[in-house]
Write a structure and sequence with these properties.
Elements: H1 7-65, H2 70-75, H3 89-99, H4 101-130, H5 136-159, H6 179-193, H7 204-221
Helix pairs in contact: 1-3, 1-5, 3-4, 4-5
C-alpha cells in the first residue's frame, strides 16, 4: 500500500506518525508527573497524621505536668522524668521534613525544649529527695513545665508551615464518648466556621516570582512598607 503513495503523501504520513508519537510521550510524561505528585501528597498526608498524633502526645504531657499535684506525684514516683525523653525523634524530624522545611526546623527547637524539660524534671526530683520542704523542687518543676509548653508551641508553629491543602481534609467524629473526643468535636466545629488562612503563593513558582518582584519595587518606593529581615535566633539561657 505504501508503494502506491506519492513521496508527498509519505512525508505527510511520517509527520503525522511523529506528531502522534510526540503526543504519546507528552501524555506519558504527564501521567508520570501526576503519579509523582499524587504519591508525594499521600506521603505528606501520612506524615501529617503521624505528626499530629505526636503533637497531641506532647500536649497531654504538658497538661499532666502542669497539674497542681504534680510535685507530690513526682515525689511519690507517679511522674517519671524519663517519660519526657523524645521518642525516636530522628524519625519525627524526618516526618516533619516531609511536610516542610519550616516544620523540621521548629521540630528541632521542640526537641531542644524537651531535652531541657527532662533535665529540669530530673533536678526537681533530685532536689526533692535531697531537701524536702525547700523551694528548689518547685522552681525546677516550674522550669520543666515552661520548657514543655515551649516545646508544644514550637511544634504547633511547625504545623502552621505545612501546605494548606493538608488542612482541608475534614475529620468526622460521630457521637464521641471520651472527654478528648468531645473536646475534639467542639474544636472541629469551631475550625469549620473559621476561614482557612492561605500561606502558599498563588500560581506556584510564577506567583512567588511576581510577588518578590512587586515587593522589591514597593520597597524601593517606600522602604517602610517592607518587613524587616528575619530576626536571629533567641539566646538560650
Amino acid at each position: 500500500m505504501l508503494t502506491s503513495l506519492t513521496p508527498a503523501e509519505i512525508e505527510l504520513l511520517l509527520i503525522g506518525l511523529q506528531a502522534f508519537a510526540t503526543l504519546g510521550l507528552v501524555g506519558f510524561a504527564a501521567v508520570q508527573i501526576w503519579q509523582f505528585a499524587s504519591s508525594r501528597k499521600e506521603r505528606q498526608r501520612i506524615a501529617y497524621a503521624a505528626t499530629y498524633g505526636e503533637y497531641w502526645r506532647l500536649q497531654a504531657l504538658a497538661d499532666t505536668w502542669k497539674q497542681t499535684d504534680a510535685l507530690s506525684r513526682l515525689q511519690n514516683h507517679l511522674l517519671d522524668p524519663a517519660a519526657l525523653q523524645p521518642r525516636d525523634w530522628l524519625s519525627t524530624l524526618r516526618t516533619l521534613g516531609e511536610l516542610s522545611y519550616g516544620a523540621a526546623a521548629f521540630g528541632g527547637w521542640a526537641y531542644d525544649h524537651m531535652e531541657r524539660a527532662q533535665e529540669y524534671a530530673k533536678r526537681a526530683e533530685q532536689a526533692m529527695h535531697g531537701a524536702i520542704g525547700s523551694t528548689e523542687p518547685a522552681r525546677w518543676l516550674a522550669e520543666a513545665v515552661r520548657e514543655l509548653e515551649q516545646a508544644v508551641m514550637a511544634f504547633r508553629d511547625g504545623l502552621k508551615t505545612i501546605p494548606s491543602y493538608l488542612l482541608r481534609h475534614n475529620v468526622t467524629i460521630v457521637d464521641p464518648e471520651s472527654e478528648i473526643g468531645k473536646f475534639m468535636e467542639r474544636r472541629l466545629r469551631e475550625a469549620r466556621s473559621a476561614p482557612l488562612r492561605r500561606h502558599e503563593p498563588r500560581l506556584g513558582f510564577l506567583g512567588r516570582w511576581l510577588g518578590r518582584r512587586i515587593a522589591a519595587v514597593a520597597g524601593w518606593f517606600d522602604p517602610a512598607s517592607v518587613a524587616p529581615p528575619f530576626p536571629p535566633a533567641p539566646p538560650r539561657g
